[in-house]
Amino acid sequence: MKVVTSATDLNAISPARPRVLVPTMGALHDGHLALVKRARELAGTDGEVMLTLFVNPTQFNNPSDLENYPRTMDRDLKLCKEHGVDLVFAPEADSMYQPDHSVNIIESSLSKRLCGATRPGHFEGVCTVVLKLFNLTRSDIAVFGKKDFQQLAIIRRMVRDLNVPITIEGVDTIRESSGLAMSSRNTRLSEKQHADAPRIRRALLAAQDLHAQGEHDPEKLLACAREEIEASTEGAKIDYLELLDAESLQPLEKVTRPAVIATAVFYGEVRLIDNIELG
Ligand code: PAF
């Protein structure tokens, strides 16, 4: 496995095709390893899997979240090696953006709600860094997790609208045995918060069950999910809980089309996200 830290060194390596990219911010967990596994399948024997490790400062709207974001480079590199990654790109923080960097990518529809509404500037940072990574790595395919439902939708839209020559592949969310979605942020939960947090998944499943029983009113479905989260014994605080059209990410009056319930919940300073699809 090769590790490169500069764009110049990266450019000097000719890619094996297809080159399949797994963009990450490090602190790798089983969710990331599922992305690597899918990337390996897509790359086949002739292609290569490339993983990027970069904690992108421009997508953090909260400085303490950026500061506390777990950084576990040595462990990450070991996991990459063990799981068949061929090439790691781990750029230095200040090498990605020029001091007078002034061009950003703005998505103006899908990013209006959910994380886009509660984390101003987040998706501008994500789209900009993801497009930079696509350009720097010259990848054919990129793999993203469905836990970040809105991120995946926005990246697909960016690729479509800007004719970026890359294929986007979504991979199902990997969960702990309790149902809690795997996240690098889970390591920052206290033991009690960690035991309480699977209620996020239970809340979404309860709403999905209610929908399967014939309830199509978004307010009732959301109330059902909200009740479970608000029963938290560890002070879980809902940042958002919304039911939206799964394609346009706009509110629905009635769930008659494929929809998604997406939520972000704070445990103290730790913010966890999850979602479930309906229909
Ligand atoms: O999902 C993430 O980890 C990040 O948003 C990404 C796509 C690596 C961009 O920094």
Offer a quick outline of the entry.
This protein is an alpha/beta fold and 279 residues long. Helix content is 37%, strand content 20%.
Write the layout of secondary structure elements.
Elements: E1 2-4, H1 7-11, E2 19-24, H2 30-43, E3 48-53, H3 63-68, H4 73-82, E4 87-89, H5 114-118, H6 122-137, E5 141-145, H7 149-161, E6 167-171, H8 191-196, H9 199-212, H10 218-230, E7 237-245, E8 259-267, E9 270-278
Parallel strand pairs: 1-4, 2-3, 2-5, 3-4, 5-6
Antiparallel strand pairs: 7-8, 8-9
Bound molecules: pantoate (PAF).
GO cellular component, one term: cytosol
GO molecular function: ATP binding; pantoate-beta-alanine ligase activity
Binding site for (R)-pantoate: 59, 151
Q: In total, how many domains does the architecture comprise?
A: 2
Order of helices and strands: EHEHEHHEHHEHEHHHEEE
The backbone outline, from C-alpha atoms, is: globular
* Backbone CA Rg: 19 Å
CATH superfamily of the largest domain: HUPs
CATH architecture of the largest domain: 3-Layer(aba) Sandwich
The first-level CATH class of the largest domain is given as Alpha Beta
Bound molecules: pantoate
What structural category do the secondary elements indicate?
A: alpha/beta
Q: End-to-end span in angstroms?
A: 42 Å
Strand elements, count: 9
CATH fold call of the largest domain: Rossmann fold
Main beta-sheet annotation: 6 strands, parallel
